[in-house]
Amino acid sequence: MNKKLTDVYEEFHRYIYHLCLKLTRNTTEAEDLMQEVWVKVVRNEKQVTQVEHVKAWLTTITMNTFRDRYRKKVRRSKYMLSQPETLDVPILDLVPNNEISTEEQVEKVAVTKIVQEKMQQLDGIYQRTLWYFYVDQYSLAEISNLMKVSIGTVKSRLFRAKARLKEILLADSSLSEVVLA
Fold first, then answer.
1. In 3D, which of 23, 17, 37 has the Cα closest to residue 70?
2. How far is it, in rounded angstroms, from Cα 70 to Cα 81?
3. Are the C-beta atoms of residues 165 and 122 closer than 8 Å to each other?
4. Mean pLDDT of 134-155
5. Whole-angstrom Cα distance, residue 27 to residue 63?
6. What are the residue boundaries of the structural domains of the chain, listed by start?
7. pTM for this one?
8. Angle at the Cα of 28 (from 54 to 78), degrees rounded to 5?
9. How is 31-99 classified by DSSP, letter by letter?
10. How far, in Å, CA of 91 to CA of 71, rounded?
11. Does domain 102-175 have CATH number 1.10.10.10?
């Protein structure tokens, strides 16, 4: 380790340890987290000399490392019951739940089917524009090249197609409860 890194460690190691302890509420986990943080700092030792606010930089590294570790734990545990009790509730808000429930999946399939059926009522040019953009996920420039029109025209067609599709969906009385105005 170079002199600058040693000085940073001497100055901030107690602060980082107490931050880790506050986050984990467990001495063993705090020590593990602190070790991970310092490994990251050593790996990025060239940045230490460029950082103006070292304490803020170290705090950010610590918080991000803690979040990463916590996300790993959550991914590993499938059930909320097996998650650690020592964590604050606000931390749970930081971890997105990427799993789609069965109900959501069924609803998604049903909505997709309805939208595809209603898209059949659109003019062909609008159908293709929507399809290229949302299904094939082409960029505006790619759609412009495919359809041999300007990007502005593609944007206009997308706008009109979405507006018309919304009108068609709202006009269907069986869907009026589901479609947002």
1. 23
2. 15
3. yes
4. 90
5. 17
6. 3-94, 102-175
7. 0.43
8. 100
9. HHHHHHHHHHHHHTHHHHTT-S-HHHHHHHHHHHHHHHHHHHHHHH--SGGGS-TTS-HHHHHHS---P
10. 10
11. yes
Of the candidates 47, 59, 50, the one whose C-alpha atom is nearest the C-alpha of residue 19 is 59
Using alpha carbons, list the distances in angstroms from residue 141 to 127, 128, 153: 17, 15, 11
Report d(CA 160, CA 82) in Å as an integer. Answer: 49
SS3 138: coil
Confidence of residue 90 (pLDDT cuts 50, 70, 90): low
Query: Whole-angstrom Cα distance, residue 160 to residue 167?
Result: 10
pLDDT in tens, 53-78: 889 889 999 998 998 888 777 666 55
How far is the C-alpha of 88 from the C-alpha of 83, rounded, in Å? 12
Whole-angstrom distance between the N-terminal and C-terminal Cα of the chain? 62
Architecture of domain 3-94: Orthogonal Bundle (1.10)
CA distance 19 to 33: 10
Which are the contacts of 67, defined by CB distance < 8 A and separation ≥ 6?
Answer: 91, 94, 95
